[in-house]
Design a protein that fits this description.
It contains 14 helices and 12 strands. It is α/β, with parallel strands linked by helices and 285 residues long. The longest helix is centred in the N-terminal third of the chain and has 13 residues. It is globular and about 55 Å long. The two termini are 39 Å apart.
Length: 285
């Protein structure tokens, strides 16, 4: 009724039509007018199926719709810097801390974690299965000049990969670009598809790997190294920098994600009984 009266007051519906305004149409208008936020996030949160599981629950609880822009972490943070999102939900702690220190974001909180896995062909031409650490595995790949697919998109996964190449004492761009080291500038799903098609190694977050169905000859060749730990954080785009940010709705999303209800929803996102992510919000924060 309130929606119909507002339309009448705005001159968008006549008094005669007001009484005949269909309830279904009214519901559609109210749905379209419902508060909504834009969340800039990573391809892993979308392609793993996490958002498909938790966002309907959040909207049901709060009435707030969520539009996700799924890109690499670096691009997601850039979207936040431009003020084109209300919330940023990513996985590169060093970059997140810079984002907050430069006052682009506020109220950063831990949300969840999983881990990265190194996947490659079952034949394992670089003998990566013999490695004890990811750095050792990458040295073996470089020594054998075995094909490696890098996302090359400034994502959190790409940043993690580059950090470990550095630990391994290898510059893959200088030594292997265009030969055994291939940067594709795309998301995790495309990197896995490319690796499967070419019989190559790649670094993947576990959630996307679990959801990935076109595995071909790929298998996990290394996991469990502490350097593969993969934490995620969420923060509000600073409304003092960008007044158009929907601060109240954005905070409601952050509060829900880090509440017992949201953390339980994250824990409930599974594929074949295996969790995509593990909740890690700190109580009281």
């Amino acid at each position: 009724m309130f929606t119909r009266l507002r339309l009448h007051a705005a001159g968008l519906i006549s008094a005669a039509a007001l009484a005949l305004f269909p309830l279904a149409a009214q519901a559609q208008v109210e749905k379209e007018a419902a508060p909504g936020i834009v969340v800039a996030s990573t391809t892993s949160t979308e392609q793993s199926g996490l958002f498909g599981h938790i966002l309907p629950l959040f909207t049901k609880d709060t009435g707030i719709a969520v539009k996700v822009v799924a890109v690499g972490t670096g691009q997601a943070l850039d979207i936040g810097r431009r003020g084109d999102a209300d919330v940023v939900f990513v996985h590169d702690r060093a970059a997140e801390d810079r984002f907050v220190a430069e006052a682009w974001g506020v109220d950063r909180r831990d949300v969840m974690y999983n881990d990265f896995v190194l996947v490659g062909p079952k034949s394992d031409p670089a003998d990566v299965a013999q490695a004890k650490t990811l750095a050792d595995a990458l040295r073996r790949i470089a020594a054998k000049q075995a094909l490696f697919i890098s996302r090359g998109d400034k994502s959190g996964t790409h940043a993690a990969e580059l950090r470990v190449w550095k630990q391994a004492g290898v510059d893959p761009v200088a030594e292997g670009r265009g030969k055994w080291y291939r940067e594709i500038g795309a998301g995790m799903g495309q990197a896995l598809n490319t690796a499967a098609a070419l019989g190559a190694y790649t670094l993947s977050d576990r959630g996307t790997w679990l959801a990935f169905k076109n595995r071909g000859d790929l298998t996990i060749v290394l996991q469990g190294d502490p350097s593969l730990f993969n934490p995620y954080g969420v923060m509000l785009v600073n409304p003092a920098k960008h007044p158009q940010v929907k601060a109240a709705q954005g905070r409601a999303f952050i509060d829900w994600l880090t509440s017992p209800v949201g953390q339980q929803a994250i824990a409930g996102a599974k594929i074949n009984g295996e969790p995509l992510f593990f909740p890690s919000a700190k109580p009281g924060l």
